Every structure is written in structure tokens, then in C-alpha cells.
Amino acid sequence: CKNRNVQHGRKVELQISKTRNRGWGLRCTQNLREGDFIDTYRGEIITDAEAIRREQEAGLGKPSYLYVLDKFGVDNGVAQEDLYVIDGEYLGGPTRFINHSCEPNCRQYTVSYNKYDFRIYEIALFAYRDIPAYEELLFDYMDRDDDDPLTEPEGEHRA
């Protein structure tokens, strides 16, 4: 169960590193198997209006660590301006350094503990395929449907 793996927290060592062509990136210091839980995307939970204000204030040259929590809200009648956003810039964890790729080795999944509020959930990152140690971790910013296959881990992470 993906939720159970997330509830136990991160079990792998992550390393922030400089990449050749993307600025900062994220990698794991041990081998990951397809389906291994990596970590959650952490940050300050802010309103959509505050996210827009921060983006405008920062300007074009500054990196953005915003992740819009819009997976369920729109389908359940929540207006765009009432959605929440995770801002990983100041209170974020190492996953704020994970970069985008159209050929990712990681996938994000939603994990919800509050079935009464569609606007609040966590973003959990899992290995989409076997990933050798020190390979840059990458995910597709376009959230795909959860019906795409991903092998469920059989137990705790094994390096």
C-alpha cells in the first residue's frame, strides 16, 4: 500500500547535487527498485492568491518551488482560487530539487489522510523503474493518472 510506505517516512538517503545542465538536482545514494518510496514533497501550504503574489514578486529569473494541489479540487467543485499550493522554497525538503523530464524515473502519487477536504493531500514520489545509485531523480511535472502500472513494493526498501 502506497499510503503505508509514506506513513513510515523516508528510508533512503537523498543527496542534492549540481547537474550538468539543469542547475541543482536530486539523487539517491543507493540503488532504488521500481516501486520504492523516495520521499514526499514538503513545504508551506499557501493559498492560490499567495502563490500568484509570490511568483509575481520573484520575477522570471528566480526558481519556483510551487506545487499546485489541484488533482481533486476542480472535479469536486472547488474553485481555482480556493485551491492550496505547496511552496517548498523556505520550508521544503530535498525533493524541491527534483527536476522535470519527459522520460522520468520517478512518479508522484497523491496520499490523502483527510477524505473530507479535497484540497489537502501529500505528494509522494516513488521510483518508476529501477534507478542506480547517484542517477539524477526526475519526474514529469504533468501528473498522470494513477491507473498506469507501478510495481508495489513487497516490503521495506532494500538497497
Protein described:
26% of the residues are buried. The chain is α+β, with helices and mostly antiparallel strands. A hairpin with a 5-residue loop joins β1 and β2. Helix content is 13%, strand content 26%. The chain is globular, with a radius of gyration of 16 Å. The protein starts with a helix and ends in a 20-residue tail after the last strand. The strands form four sheets. Strands 3-9-8 form a three-stranded antiparallel beta sheet. A three-stranded antiparallel beta sheet has the order 4-6-5. The protein contains three helices and ten strands; from the N terminus they run αββββαββαββββ. It is found in: Chromosome. Keywords: Chromosome, Metal-binding, Methyltransferase, S-adenosyl-L-methionine, Transferase, Zinc. Pfam families: SET (PF00856). It comes from Cryomyces antarcticus. InterPro entries: H3K9_Histone-Lys_N-MTase (IPR050973), SET_dom (IPR001214), SET_dom_sf (IPR046341).
